[in-house]
Design brief:
Elements lengths: L7 H16 L5 H7 L4 H17 L8 H11 L4 H18 L3 H22 L1
The structure holds protoporphyrin IX containing FE.
GO molecular function: heme binding; oxygen binding
Protein name: Hemoglobin-like protein
Organism: Flavobacterium laiguense
Length: 123
């Protein structure tokens, strides 16, 4: 039986494994490695804070994801298939590592945010 997501260390594990997949992904990896040229040393801690805040209401995220993805879409067009693929990779990563209430919640939250982001970024 897999453990549920309990704390920041679990979030860090999830985010690290997820972005390991993203970096080499044939469909959306280039947004990170070529379009945005992400500095992983900076991006990963931002993502730990983002997800920790979502699951545990820590109040430690003050970024603007909607704007970031809107800017990204201006540089290189994002489409619904990209978002669906992002969600598949995210869900697969969660299911590989965790199971339980928090694991279900984080997948649902990701799905909802992706839906809003898609309308905001692509508008
Ligand atoms: C096809 C889908 C997606 C792509 C290609 C993508 C790509 C990116 C890239 C390249 C960045 C770095 C931007 C930069 O620092 O200049 C970024 C930041 C970020 N992404 Fe995504 N993303 C996608 C979907 C999502 C979804 C669905 C979520 C949330 C559920 C999300 C959450 C974030 C957050 C929180 C940041 C940091 C924002 C900040 O620094 O304020 N992304 N994304």
């Amino acid at each position: 039986m897999k453990p549920d997501i309990k704390n920041r260390a679990d979030i860090e594990k999830l985010v690290n494994v997820f972005y390991d997949k993203i970096k080499t992904d044939a469909e959306i990896g280039y947004f990170f490695t070529e379009v945005a040229r992400v500095d992983w040393g900076k991006h990963l801690p931002i993502m730990y804070n983002f997800w920790e805040n979502i699951l545990f209401s820590t109040g430690n995220f003050d970024g603007n994801p909607m704007l970031k993805h809107k800017e990204l879409n201006k540089k290189s067009k994002l489409n619904p298939t990209h978002f669906l693929h992002w969600n598949t990779l995210f869900n697969d990563t969660v299911d590989e590592l965790f199971a339980g209430e928090r694991a279900t919640e984080i997948k649902q939250r990701a799905k909802n945010i992706a839906a809003v982001m898609m309308t905001k970024a692509l508008e």
